[in-house]
Structures are given as structure tokens and as C-alpha cells.
User: Fold this.
Amino acid sequence: MTGYAKGLGIERPIVVMRRIDLREYVTSEPLELSAGEHDALRAAVPSLTIEQVPGEANVYCLKPGSTIGALELGDLSVVIHPKLDISRVLFLASYALGALKLREERFDFEKAHTLVEALALALEAAARRAFARGLLHGYRTEEEALYTVRGRILVAEQIRRRFGVPVPIEVRYDEFTEDILANRLVKAAAGLLGRMRIRSPRARAGLRWIGAMLGNVAPMRFAPSDVPAVTFDRLNAHYREVVGLARLILRHWAFEADRGGRRAAGFLMNMNTVFQEFVTQALREELRVSAHTLRSDDRLPRRIALDEDENIRLKPDLTWWDGWACTFVGDAKYKNVTGERVPNTDLYQLLAYATALDLPGGLLVYARGEAAERTYQVRNAGTRLEVVAVDLAGAIDELRASVGRVAARVRALRADARRAARAA
Assistant:
């Protein structure tokens, strides 16, 4: 919807956003969508089920999957609320990136109406804590042509580019500056959130404050699939939280483009990915092992295949490796399970993993409330498939206890695998 406002004798359009509020895994009431809105939503959120109401033109019921967040398509705003509290979602996602420890929970945003608002408030709060000690500075290597010598003269470049002309001089030097990767990540994240239409005046003011504090930092764009990590030590450890939040925002930024003249931007987070990354990180911490030992599906040391010709490739979420030997396999499942019954497809998948890796058992890790804990003994195979749960909604102590119980099952299954290997 577009209106017009007058100022300085000039009429300028004001875009009034139409907002749709959805909830994870819940079917909406019938909603009217134009053909362009329907197509744009389907393309932007593939996990969103859009079903036309029989007998009604351009009227649909929407049911989100595990993708949550906010999306702006022209004058349409779509907000997908999580089934968990927003503060818990931010905690899980931040912990998975190493920004927090399992004993910490800094987020408490009762007045935040959306995940994007909560992210803006969290980023500002973390930035104020980090910047309280002054902006982080570091050395950055620069190469440029100067009329005075600074740092090291690049003789080869001077000959190649200047053909013996003495000035300007090609030099390389180290600049002590605040324009470093950590600050660039924070500025980029604040800039993206600032382009969203956030209702909270406090959140908008916080994002402007971050931008002003980082005024001397170069604006950068980072692809969601290639957000660089920052190495922390005792000198920059106070930046861990704010950089972790910035990386979280940049990794889950959906897109920003014009689609047929329609502005599009959004922050969309797949809770399947968040749950898998959280479980992996929490188990590493509880078991006191590194990412080299307890591996995720994108860091497998070798190919895993179900068939001997290696045509059926497998990528389990969790594997424990002793060198080239795998001694544990598991899968993390954040999904809507009806009636607390584990889907057969999940059990078949875990059985395939255990069979391919020649292990006596495997572990399925669900979010509590999605499936009952139990053990399945596979007939004629001797394989044991265990199902456990992590309570995501309870207090932090309860969450830690759930992770501890899952870690105990990992140790037991690994011990069984090692005994079977010695007996073979």
C-alpha cells in the first residue's frame, strides 16, 4: 500500500508494510496473496508450504517448516516465529558458533516482537560490552604507491610498474588500525539489520550507534556461505560474543536484491542446521574432544558409502574418528514428529550409517518433545538403534543435563564399537 507525504513542497511516496505473522510448523488462517507475492515467497522459503484454499482465487494457507525469521518482499513483511522462545533460539545459535559457553545465557528480550528485533538488541548489547574497552585495533598489511618511503620497498613491483621512475614508490607496511576483520564483521551485520524495517526505536537507535562507533571501518559485504572466522586470544577475547552474533547474522542473511522491481531482504534461520550445530558443539565440549575427533557431516575424513561401488554416498551428522577408524555414528533431528513416534525413514537412515561403517549401533538425537526415548534392536543384524532427546526449552542446567545424558550414550556406543573391533 502506498500513500504520499508532503515535505518542502515535494510529494514523496510512503510505503506501508502489510505484515503476515506465521509460526513454525503451524498452518495459518486463509491469507490473500498476489501472484507475485506467492511466487516470491515460494522461491525465498522453499520449506514454506503454500496451499490454495479451494474455490478461492489468490487465497492461501501457509505452513512454515523449520525455517524461521523475517522476510520483506516489497510492501509485504512475513515474520515466522519459532516454537521456542526467541532468547533460547539466539542462545542455541550463538553457542553453536562458539560465541557463548553452555553455562551462559545473556539473552532476555521480553519486548522483542521478532527474531530480527532480538538480534538487533543482542548485537547492540554485545557491542557495548566489547567496545567498553575501546575499539579493537590490529595490524593490517597495506601495499600502495607513496611519495615517501614507509615500511619495505617492493623493488620488483617498482621496476614492473614504474619502469625505473623513482617516485611514487611501491611499498608494503603494517598499519595499526581499527579497520580489521572483527570490526568489519560487526559493521556489516549492523548494516544488514539496519536495512530491515524494525519497529523497535531502541533497536534502530542501537544499530545507528554501532554504525557511528565503526565510522572509520570500511563497509564490506560477506557471502552467507563464506563468512570468515576470527581467531581469538587473550587480547581480543572480549570481542568473542559480538563477533559471534555478527557471524550468525551474516551466515543466515537470506538475500538482498530486487526481484522484478520488488525489494527483497530477509534473515532466515534453518532450525535443523542450528540444532545439528548446537548438538555437535555441545557434545564436543562435554566429551572434551576436538572437531578433528567428533566430526560434523561437512568435515568427514573420507568418503562413506553404503554400497561397495560407492554409488550410495552417506553423510552422517556426527561421527567419532580414531585416525581413519570410525567408532561412533549419530544423527541430529530437529523436526515435527507426530505422536512421539520416530519416523521409519530416520531409523532406516541410521541403520544405513551403522551398516556402512560396520558399527554395532548408532544414535538418533531429537529435540525433547519430538520423539520418545527408546532402543530398537534390529532383527537378523544385531544392530542397536538408540533414540535420545535434548531438552531445548528448559533451564540451562536442564539443557546441560540433557547434553550430559547424550554424551553418556555416545561413550557407551563407542565402547561397544571398540570391543566389537577387538573381537573381530
About this structure: Residues 1-15 have pLDDT under 50 and may be disordered.
